[in-house]
Amino acid sequence: MNTKPTNVAARFAARGSVRVFSDKPLENNVLDNILAAASHAPTTGNMQLYSVVVSRRPEALGQLRKLHQGQPCVTGCQALLTFCADLRRFSRWCELRKADCGFDNAGGMMTAVVDATIFAQQFVAVAEECGLGTVYLGTVMYDLQGFRRQLELPEGVMPLFSIAVGYPAAQPQPSDRLPLEAVVHRESYADPSDADIEAFYAARESAPEAARFIAENNKETLAQVFAEVRYPRSVNMAVTEGLKDFLHF
Amino acid sequence: MNTKPTNVAARFAARGSVRVFSDKPLENNVLDNILAAASHAPTTGNMQLYSVVVSRRPEALGQLRKLHQGQPCVTGCQALLTFCADLRRFSRWCELRKADCGFDNAGGMMTAVVDATIFAQQFVAVAEECGLGTVYLGTVMYDLQGFRRQLELPEGVMPLFSIAVGYPAAQPQPSDRLPLEAVVHRESYADPSDADIEAFYAARESAPEAARFIAENNKETLAQVFAEVRYPRSVNMAVTEGLKDFLHF
User: Of B71, B52, B51, B237, which is closest to residue B139 (Cα–Cα)?
Assistant: First the structure.
């Protein structure tokens, strides 16, 4: 293993999400080894406030594809993993041991959301190092109750996102990212000027596909495609409503 | 690099958090290379709804240590990184480009929380592969407004947690974790029986330090130490109150 920082960084910088998978089988024991390794990711106070539901049966994947708005990778992957914030296991242990578990509120659920996401991303890191491809599907948030019913999640368990996994059909293309200075602040938050903001997004706005996205969606700017077509206010408001059932505000 | 799945998994399973760091300097360019690599982590719709504030100045670390309830690693590390859900950069771009950004609600903030946590954990994965040690500090949640002021975070930016980083003073010990069947469910959520729950926590309850924790805290069970001493209801309720300022419920 080459652990020279520049080489390690180059390896991680070259990653990309995979949406099309080969037929190569992913054995259960390989998947379990990766999940077990990922469970050594950091977790709040070693409480592991998360669960993952592994879906592999074709009928189940067919149902989940509908819930995921028809995305083809749901039935084209080797396994679909739905990561959940889970306050239930810990609180049931507390109940059995006469302890007052105080996580039944938004603070508790937010802790579990962070725990579950750390575990999920460590799963992705380990899986990708093993030559697997992955893609996050955020569409879970659009129908929390539908996923809850489909996966038979009990009270205290909130689905967050799915990750499709399998061997890549082709080498993934790394995505463009904002320049580092857009996301990293030194000592305190340096609120960017309008010119800074324009510079951060300049490469993305001048990329050939930007013009295509704008034309296809009949919009005037790339930001409108992101904010009004892909992630519109109506969807975010529906997500917000759905979250109320789980965050107990 | 050895990418045989069992070897990769063993490497990740052996990790542990590091709270004591050596004096070996962490150069700015090494840290920036790792952050840049981590920014290729998955992100919702390539929006990168996150920021990180890097604190290195001793005076700043002294202030942050107070906010982090005195934890010694804050001043003992080479750099303290505070990861934030950030809706501001994207929404300002939208404003400049006449796009209606609909993320100013709990749905938008939850998307940003997941984005920021994925980025943070990818930072940890890359840093650890480079031989660095890291530890998450969840204490940010206990005083969101204090961190907001200290780091000069504007509206739309929510601090989530800090990560202390540096070269480890000693090889970290891997933490025990629950058995895999406690966190992994096949096809649907298998709600455990009471006996299952007891089996999941049995090793932890019978470990030598469990008896010590119980005695030190004058409690009857290990679950009481976790739920009533370390993460009591009063703290979670205070976190819940603090979240309201950022989740806009």
Answer: B71
Provide the number of structural domains found in chain B. 2
User: Min CA distance, A233 vs chain B (Å)?
Assistant: 4
Is A235's CB within 8 Å of B102's CB?
A: yes
**Which residues of chain A are under the pLDDT cut of 50?**
none
- Chain A residues within 8 A of B11 when measuring between CB atoms: 1, 37
8 Å CB contact of A97 and B223: yes
pLDDT value for A2: 56
Give the residue from B128, B154, B173 where a domain finishes.
B173
Q: Give A247's contacts (C-beta < 8 A, 6+ positions apart).
A: A106, A109, A110, B106, B247, B249
Domain membership of residue B136 (yes or no) is yes
User: Beta B157-166 vs B133-137: how paired, if at all?
Assistant: antiparallel
* A186/B54 CB distance under 8 A: yes
- B173 vs B56: which has the higher pLDDT: B56
Same domain flag for A20 and A79: yes
B222 and B205 in a common domain: yes
Q: Please state the separation of Cα A37 from the chain's center in Å.
A: 18
Instruction: Report pLDDT for B2.
Output: 56
Shortest Cα distance from A2 to chain B (angstroms)? 5
Measured between beta carbons, the chain A residues lying within 8 angstroms of B198 are 96
Q: Which residue has the tokens 């499709």?
A: A164
Helix (H, G, I), strand (E, B) or coil at B81: strand
Residues B153 and B106 placed together within one structural domain of the fold: yes
- Asked whether residue A14 falls in the same domain as residue A100, the answer is yes
Say if the Cβ atoms of B33 and A1 lie within 8 Å. Answer: no
pLDDT of residue A6: 87
The minimum CA-CA distance between A177 and chain B, rounded to whole Å, is 7
Its ipTM equals: 0.98
Residue B23 lies in a domain: yes
- Choose from A26, A89, A153, A176 for mutation: most chain B CBs within 10 A: A89
Buried-exposed string A40-59: b where 16+ CB fall within 10 A, e elsewhere: bbbbbeebbbbbbbbbbeee
Asked if residue B168 and residue B198 are part of one domain, the reply reads no
The residue of chain A with its CA nearest to that of B201 is A93
Structural domain contains residue B245: no
Specify whether A191 is located in the same domain as A114. no
Least CB–CB distance from A125: residue in B14, B117, B122: B122
Here the tokens at position B63 are 């202030």
Q: Specify the CATH number for the domain of residue A35.
A: 3.40.109.10
Task: Say how many residues make up chain B.
Answer: 249
pTM exceeds 0.90 for this model: yes
Rounded mean pLDDT of B150-161?
98
Residue of A nearest to B238 (CA): A107
Check whether residue B212 and residue B159 sit in a common domain: no
Domain residue limits at B221: 180-236
Contacts of A42 in chain B (CB under 8 A): 17, 121, 124, 134-136
Q: What is the pLDDT of residues B53-99, one digit of tens each?
A: 999 999 999 999 999 999 999 999 999 999 999 999 999 999 999 99
pLDDT of amino acid B249: 63
Mean pLDDT of B188-216: 97
A162 and A186, same domain (yes or no): no
Percentage, residues of chain A above pLDDT 70: 98
